[in-house]
Amino acid sequence: MYSLELRGATKRYPGGGAEPVVALDDVDFAVEPGEFVAVVGPSGSGKSTLLNVLGLLDDPTEGQRLLDGTDVTSLSVAQRTAARKESIGFVFQDFHLLPTLTAVENVALPTAFDPGDASDRAADLLSRFGLGDRLGHEPAELSGGQKQRVAIARSLINEPAVLLADEPTGNLDTETGESILAEFERVKEEGVAVVAVTHDPLVEGFADRVVELTDGVLVGGVPDGGERADEPRPGPETATAGDR
Ligand SMILES: Nc1ncnc2c1ncn2[C@@H]1O[C@H](COP(=O)(O)OP(=O)(O)OP(=O)(O)O)[C@@H](O)[C@H]1O
Ligand SMILES: [Mg+2]
């Protein structure tokens, strides 16, 4: 079973009077547990849109989305929040760290409403990313690459089944990028599905599969042998979670 899957997913943004923008065009995508997929493509080709739709941050206009085999095409806000917290780690291109929290508090933030104190685990994650001596620093006191590593540590605090990362090595020197990728490799070996948008050949080198987006059209989105050419594709009217 796939960790995460899109079937015939289209994402259209309203064009503000002009033609709508087709950011994803009939995309089939799947990632298996323990697989590392790199998503490449030119600026504006739909990479962040793909990641947002995969990460339940945005819904497809048409098509179907499955998380661990369960249809999660359209969920209520509460269901979506629960599913994301349970299963998905997300590293944003611009980090989304809270400026008034320290590094360790930012990493522990996703567990804020859980019983117990996650600061030891947060500190441990930060140490693994070479930030053991920056636990009490606020984002403004950290370099771009250090903030990025805090964001990656935070994405792992809930031990997600799927890790989605937008340009995870974008601000990092080669050595730091390699240590992050080694950490992704370790996470992957624990069975986590990793999907990373990248322009970095280093990331492509680490990936099990590289998929390419051009103007919203995805090539190589489904693992070999996993094509569903014989299956009818659900139309927009059938592709809702309520159909289960
Ligand atoms: N909220 C939005 N409303 C309208 N159009 C949008 C919106 N978000 C993205 N787009 C458009 O959708 C297309 C895909 O955008 P997206 O951000 O997914 O590209 P990208 O591949 O991530 O680009 P980059 O490499 O520059 O980050 C672009 O044409 C963009 O202008
Ligand atoms: Mg983008």
Automatic annotation (TrEMBL):
Gene Ontology cellular component annotations, sorted alphabetically: membrane protein complex
Q: Which Pfam families match?
A: ABC_tran (PF00005)
Question: Basic and acidic residues bias: where?
Answer: 225-234
Does the UniProt entry include the keyword Phosphoprotein?
no
**UniProt entry keywords in alphabetical sequence:** ATP-binding, Nucleotide-binding, Transport
Q: Where is this region: Disordered?
A: 220-244
The protein here is known as ABC transporter ATP-binding protein
Query: In the record, what terms sit under GO molecular function?
Result: ATP binding; transmembrane transporter activity
Q: Does this entry carry the keyword Calcium? A: no
